[in-house]
Fold this protein.
Amino acid sequence: ERLGGCAVVAAAALEPVSYKKCDEAPTPMILIAGTRDVVVSAERVRETAAALVRRNPGCGAEVHEFDKEHAMVKSQPEAEALMRFWSKTLTLPRPKASDYGEDVIEV
């Protein structure tokens, strides 16, 4: 099964050379990069996204670059990009607690 989505902010995921081809359901990703980030460059974030797409072409790794240094989300445009991503990815049909058995409680 795939995750509903994954957000990566001010970071690159695993080293691209470590990704192996995956035939399982893709996990959509959004990667937020700062164009002035000297810790994790926007180029490195784009490389991560490209490696994710090579690993599983359906993963839909979106890169959004903002004029910022190495920092978490703190602007309205960044928050809006995340909200748009989550509105697309978290509205997919989700398993219910009952799919896992009678002893699992929906929270």
